[in-house]
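[job 4471] stage=fold_predict status=RUNNING
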Amino acid sequence: MITIGIPKITKKNRRARLSCEVEINSEVKELWVEVDNKYAGYLTKDRCDAFLIALLPIAMRNQKDLYCIAPVSEELLMNLKTILIPTLAKNGSDLYKTRISVDEIKKPMGNGGAVGTGLSRGISSMHILSNFIDSEYKSIDVTHLLITDIGAYDIAGFGEGGKDAEKIKQECIDESIKMAEELDLDAIKVTSNLTKDFPSKYSLDHIFNNLFPVFALQKMFKIYYYGSSGNSYEKFTLENCDHTDCGSYELLIAAALSTSNLRIILEGGEKNRLEKIADIVHYSPAQKHLHVCITDSKNCNLCRKCMRTLLSLDVLGRLDYFTQVFDIEYYKRNRRKYIAFLEKGHEQGDKLSEPIYQIFQQKKMLPASTPDIVDDSINFYDEINTSALIVKNHTTGKILMKKQPTESFSAVGVAKIMTALIALESWKTQTLIDLPEEFLDGIPRVTLYDVINILMISRSNDAANIIAEAVAGSTENFVNLMNEKNIELKLKNTHYELPTGLGVNSYTTAEDTVKLMEYSFKNPHFCKIFKSLSYTIKSNGNEKSIKTSTPLLMPASRYYIPECIAAKYGTAGLFGNVIAVTEKNANVYLAVLLGVKEEDKTQNKFRDAKNILHAVMNPKV
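[job 4471] inference complete, writing structure tokens
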């Protein structure tokens, strides 16, 4: 049994609190909601409608009945007992058909005639405001905005990565208040302990949580617009409603919670999320204030909601409208990662991603799964996982195969070639370097030339940082040298953040990488190291041998290419890069593969490299 006490109103520090005691499993806790004193007269204490709505999903999920000491509005009680509860319990095997013991109050409440909506600054929130401020329906235009701390801020995952969830929450609220002031609408700042002290499955039951403060203020509102979920009405379903986002059946909930005093209107439910985004792209407040992120107070670009929104803006051709709220340049540089996310959502049946995927497919915006064949002599039709590539006959200068040569991808693997090149050109190769104790067991001191060999053969990140310190005094200074070299070599779409190539701001293109390699081939010391399969370091009577781990160069590997004379690769997350050089029939071939999509325990970058180079070296007769 869950017992809901008698609501009361108290005032403190210019805030008015509506609260009541709630007993669950013999434990008594206070459930409350607060607003500024100016709205205290609209708080409803003569009935416990709001508290009943807030606690109903908790009761149904925990097989509890509800007993309310204070009365409940007759119309609302009838809707809950005869429509909502029986329907949900019937279609959700884990939902209990909660019984409510309470006296009903027949007296109509009346309201202040206000029309409200929540200001979360998300897609649905912006859609409501774009449609119902200065609309053709003046009597139902929005007059008041609710800015609450109830909801996603308190669920697990918000503020992930060690971020301060309370700080994020306050920053979001402050930005919403700022937007309300710009819109010249009354903003009601609401705080509550509902999601913090009465844990529920917010991701499944959010409409009950978010309407708690609305019903606490039902003396104010005649209409409240609730932003419909990303699913359109045609996706309505009650199947497995105990484990389904209530957005799938919010039409039922909104109807059951609406009364003659307060009508809940689901706005935008006739459209899917992509269609709603299309509606708000020209809405200037959205361009300035849109916030969809579930991990930070600013859009992070990387959480699932940020990624879906960016992909939507891309397919609509409106990315550049939202430079104030997203890092659009980052998206453009890493577009293949976002498309991989979209493709994965399609494979897994993600309903929110699917409309975006379908438009990407219709507009032929998905990267082709086969490369563009340039040379007629090549017979290659295999599907590949490589996002961008160039294969060039270095001997003749002819490009034989390419795909997205100017698209930007992670510079992992490529940056270490630049690191080695700058070190070789520094004239410090014989400089002695004191190594960290754990770097080479038993070998405390080596030359810079030794470390360059370690970098190129073993792909060591530590070696890249050691080189940077030795050549430039710090990694920051060395990265400046790397980026200055980019300018010198006219690598216009390449930038490095770290000597290792890691970091979100380390990126390059297949076209730039080919230019870098052709410049590097002019350095005989580089060529010697690049072709080396092993290297032995000797110091103070100790020896340490370094051997290649590149499968293209290892005879025992299934990806071995006998004609391969040099290769380098790198991996960052679910993507990898490969640079390989082969020689056959007096022709030298250079292959650059970037953004190769990998999954657990796959070796797609080596498979693609082997298949592509085999086709190039064995043209049609």
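[job 4471] summary: Residues 229 and 247 are 5 Å apart (CA to CA).
[job 4471] exit 0
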